[in-house]
Automatic annotation (TrEMBL):
Pfam families: YopX
Full protein name: Putative phage protein (TIGR01671 family)
Sequence ranges assigned to domain YopX protein in this UniProt record: 37-120
Gene3D superfamilies: YopX-like domains (2.30.30.290)
């Protein structure tokens, strides 16, 4: 059994930004947790996009739409959608396509929490 690294990302509450892997202490020297907005937490997929950017659940990705399985040309239209977990397949999918994707053909351009306008102007 291969275990993948478990990481998640979330949008923080107002205040100083933490560094990944750092332990923070309050003014009296006690360790404390960094608060995030729970609805913004997204699981790391274990995949990276074509630029090496980590892909998280809730990320918006830009890609050439080959949903019909046919590659026509490099002029294929570009589209964008959201990465989400699919419990039926046990993998991450691009929402509109409904099947597992190859991360190397995608580019992360934002996420649903910080850039929802990217989905309004799809394509």
């Amino acid at each position: 059994m291969v275990l993948r690294e478990r990481r998640s990302a979330g949008e923080g509450c107002p205040g100083p930004r933490p560094q990944e892997g750092a332990l923070y202490f309050n003014s009296v020297g006690m360790p404390f947790a960094y608060r995030v907005r729970p609805e913004t937490v997204g699981q790391y997929t274990g995949l990276k996009d074509k630029n090496g950017t980590e892909i998280y659940e809730g990320d918006i990705v830009h890609y050439k739409d080959y949903s019909n399985g046919v590659y026509l040309s490099d002029q294929q239209p570009m589209t964008r959608d959201v990465v989400k977990w699919n419990p039926d397949t046990g993998g991450y999918i691009v929402r509109s396509m409904g099947f597992t994707f190859k991360a190397k053909t995608y580019e992360v351009i934002g996420n649903i929490h910080q850039n929802p306008e990217l989905l309004e102007a799809k394509g």
